[in-house]
From TrEMBL:
Taxonomic lineage of the native organism: Bacteria, Pseudomonadati, Bacteroidota, Flavobacteriia, Flavobacteriales
Name under which the protein is recorded: Response regulator receiver domain-containing protein
Coiled coil: none
GO biological process, one term: phosphorelay signal transduction system
Modified residues (4-aspartylphosphate): 63
Keyword Phosphoprotein assigned: yes
Pfam families assigned: Response_reg (PF00072)
Source domain of life: Bacteria
PANTHER family for the chain: RESPONSE REGULATOR RCP1, RESPONSE REGULATOR RCP1-RELATED
Domain Response regulatory: 6-133
SUPFAM superfamilies in UniProt: CheY-like
Keywords for this protein: Phosphoprotein
Taxonomic source organism: Maribacter stanieri
Length: 138
């Protein structure tokens, strides 16, 4: 079992992606980090690698509001390919939106683990990664 957590950030804000990468790296936890600037890039990566589950992320931090393909559109496409994905992927919908409509819509998608309001605090981020790493050992 590979003890490195493959972590993915899908967000159109380059500054947010940069700060998320730095925050994740600062935890010193064993992970590989990949980032995409919109949902289409992320879903294309998954479609291109359906025969190589080992390259898929273990966790995705997915923004809602992005050009090209937003977080909800990504989830629509992901749900279609999920049966062909040979591993469990934990997905967190991440947004600055406090709109109850967005929150409720995200909660109705069973493939989404939780809705997190930006910014994600370092302690919350670290506990999410630690929990995922621990779950992999069990």
């Amino acid at each position: 079992m590979n003890d490195v957590l493959k972590t993915c950030i899908v967000d159109d804000d380059s500054i947010y992606r940069f700060t998320m990468v730095k925050a994740l790296e600062s935890t010193k936890l064993p992970m590989e980090i990949m980032a995409f600037s919109d949902g289409e890039e992320a879903i294309d990566f998954m479609l291109d690698n359906l025969d190589q589950n080992s390259v898929f992320p273990d966790v995705i931090f997915l923004d809602i509001d992005m050009p090209v393909m937003d977080g909800f559109q990504f989830m629509e496409e992901y749900v279609k390919i999920k049966p062909r994905v040979g591993k469990k992927i934990t997905i967190y919908m991440v947004s600055s939106s406090l709109d109850p409509v967005d929150i409720e819509r995200a909660k109705k998608i069973s493939a989404i683990s939780d809705y997190i309001v930006k910014p994600i605090g370092l302690s919350r981020l670290k506990s999410i990664i630690e929990e995922l790493l621990e779950d992999r050992k069990n």
